[in-house]
Amino acid sequence: MTGDEIDKSVRQELMSLPKTLADDVAKNLVMVAKLLDDEPERAYEYSRVALRLASRVAAVREAAGFASYGVAKYSEALAEFRAARRMTGSVDLWPVMADCERGMGRPERALAMAGEPEVQKLDRAGQVEMRLVAAGARRDMGQTDAAVVTLQSPELASQSVQPWTARLRYAYADALLAVGREGEAREWFAKALEADQGGTTDASDRLAELDGVEFVDALAPEEPEDELEPEAELEPEDEPEAEAEVEDEPELVEDESDVEDDEPAGEPEASAESDDIESDDLKKEADEGDGR
Questions:
Q1: 131 alpha carbon, distance to own chain's centre
Q2: Are the C-beta atoms of residues 43 and 36 closer than 8 Å to each other?
Q3: Tell me: the pLDDT tens digits for 103-159?
């Protein structure tokens, strides 16, 4: 990646650096721009590299500010934005600087910045951004009705669609909902959705929520109903014990049979012994008879 892939004004700033250094800085700035929305943590890492390489370049300080803002490091972001503003004298960063004050828990300071002369120097898009920040500060302070009034402007009433139209209408719908004006809120969420060509808001989801519509993800895998049944059926585990008891019975039977078998075996022995005694007695008597 080279400097040709970044903004022309940034390339001009980098021309003050040695070519090799300028190329390295440009590569990191390109990565910040590419990753800022989807992978803000990585964008932040690239911004810190660029900052180490060329902290005196306003574009680098601005990129570092947005990268810090993307990961909610508001104090760090505000410092970078202030440095970039000192270098360029531009007021373009005024709204995001005010929003950093909100992020740091100082909505009253953000509201004060909305009344500074710098706001009048902003272009139309910048003034809309400042109005959004001011309305957010009002809500932070619990002034929900004032937030609704803050967003009421010619830009809100305009029928033309600008890059900021969807966000402005969405913020107005959200503010209306916060004060309980649900019917009007639904109308403005619908208008926000109509203008949201890039899908920058979740107006469609908010509309569905108000209408009581629940979306089901058709791609989500269904959970098997009987998935836990094998674990729940623990009765089979007891069967081996029952089988063991049954297996013990034959052993008892065998013992009894052994005892029964032994008894007949003993009788012949006793009978044979008695027969021997009787034969001896007869022989003795015969001998005595012969002697007589």
A1: 31
A2: yes
A3: 999 999 999 999 999 999 999 999 999 999 999 999 999 999 999 999 999 999 999
pTM of the model: 0.70
Question: Which candidate, 245, 177, 236, places its Cα nearest to that of 209?
Answer: 177
Which three-class secondary structure string do you get for the chain? CCHHHCCHHHHHHHCCCCHHHHHHHHHHHHHHHHHCCCCHHHHHHHHHHHHHHCCCCHHHHHHHHHHHHHCCCHHHHHHHHHHHHHHHCCCCCHHHHHHHHHHCCCHHHHHHHCCCHHHHHCCHHHHHHHHHHHHHHHHHCCCHHHHHHHHCCHHHHCCCCCCCHHHHHHHHHHHHHHCCCHHHHHHHHHHHHHHCCCCCCCHHHHHHHHHCCCCCCCCCCCCCCCCCHHHHCCHHHHHHHHHHHHHHHHHHHHHHHHHHHHHHHHHHHHHHHHHHHHHHHHHHHHHHHHHC
20-44 residue pLDDT tens: 999 999 999 999 999 999 999 999 9
Mean pLDDT of 199-224: 78
Residue 199 Rama label (left phi>0; alpha psi -120 to 50; beta): left
